[in-house]
Design goal:
By secondary structure, the chain is an alpha/beta fold. It has 16 helices and 7 strands. β5, α5 (140-149) and β6 form a beta-alpha-beta unit. The longest helix is centred in the C-terminal third of the chain and has 15 residues, at 251-265.
Length: 334
């Protein structure tokens, strides 16, 4: 599935809502940032000073752009806003994340085999969380020959988790252990554009202007310095269900986390009842551990674990509002 194609026609990136491209929205950011259209106010990051001129330099030639960082550092929004600012007129083709049991789909391969006809000089190929495609169609050969080489002038824009660019961090026996060229290429391309979870003074000053009242509500200064993490509750869920070890130690929690993520990836509204979540999580749990099942107590324990409430109550995290799934008035309390 190619994201960003509206009614069968490509659309300029400045006309596309990033949340239709697999980028997750943040309810706290929307609330405190006010109504600014289809997405909350963007706070410029220090990396923009180098990233945006670099994109401008690729206006005619095209090339590879990679932003890396912690899962909760704001990579996707930063890269998206930079592209809109510099080359907003280019059409965007977004490749969905691999889906299915154990990520059996290969969107990159499907895109290439479909022979999509596009004008590279007017196009962007968007691959968010590119590490999700490691071992599922994205190789150095594919990136250089089938994407950059096939479409002269195209901009291939990727985000990636920093820790996934180290060979030692890859799963033993995975395809990535056999493709160090790709890791090295992505690491080198992203060296100037790495985002930190802790914001610097200029970024925090911008955040105070954009999200007035938020600092007082958060309370703890150390939490305000990690504002992107406070906004990125969805990444907390992603970490929970994508960690292979969690699938063995807490399959119920992983099932809840994956159900919530799949709900949003499917374009559903932000709110869902516990009954809806429990039904979807039950389907996920059948795959992870058919013998587990849910009781009322085990479901609520899994929900607390998946959304981070367990860690907040234990004092491991102090910020609030990170959960993608929150209680809603009028919903069934079960």
């Amino acid at each position: 599935r190619v994201l960003g194609v509206l009614d069968g026609e490509p659309a300029a990136i400045e006309e596309v809502n990033p949340y239709s491209m697999g980028v997750f929205s943040s309810e706290p950011a929307r609330v405190y940032g006010g109504d600014t259209g289809d997405r909350p106010t963007y706070v410029e990051r220090t990396v923009d000073r180098e990233l945006r001129p670099a994109i401008a330099a690729l206006t005619k030639s095209g090339g590879l752009l990679v932003v890396r960082g912690h899962p909760q550092s704001g990579k996707s929004r930063t890269l998206w806003e930079a592209l809109v600012d510099q080359v907003g007129w280019r059409d965007v083709y977004g490749l969905a994340r691999p889906t299915g049991a154990d990520h059996t789909s290969e969107p990159v391969t499907t895109f290439i085999e479909a022979g999509v006809s596009l004008d590279g000089a007017r196009s962007i190929i968007w691959i968010d969380d590119a590490h999700e495609h490691f071992g599922h169609g994205l190789t150095d050969q594919v990136l250089t020959s089938d994407l950059l080489g096939r479409y002269p002038g195209v901009i291939v824009a990727l985000t990636v988790h920093t820790h996934r660019l180290g060979v030692a961090e890859q799963t033993a026996g995975s395809v990535m252990l056999e493709d160090p060229k790709l890791l090295n290429r992505l690491r080198k391309a992203s060296d100037p554009y790495e985002l930190n979870v802790v914001w610097d003074d200029d970024e925090l000053a911008g955040a105070r202007l954009a999200y007035q009242g938020l600092e007082d509500d958060i309370g703890n200064p150390e939490d305000f310095k990690t504002l992107a993490r406070w906004f990125a509750g969805v990444d907390y869920l992603l970490e929970r269900y994508e960690d292979q070890g969690n699938r063995f130690t807490n399959p119920r929690g992983v099932a809840v986390a994956k159900a919530a993520i799949d709900w949003r990836r499917g374009g559903m509204p932000a709110g869902m009842t516990n009954l809806q979540l429990r039904e979807l999580a039950g389907i996920e749990l059948e795959v992870l551990d058919p013998t587990a099942g849910f009781t009322d107590d085990s479901f609520h324990a899994a929900l607390d674990w998946a959304t981070g409430e367990e860690d907040i109550k234990a004092g491991r995290y102090r910020w609030k509002g990170v959960a993608l799934v929150r209680p809603m008035p009028g919903t069934d309390p079960t």
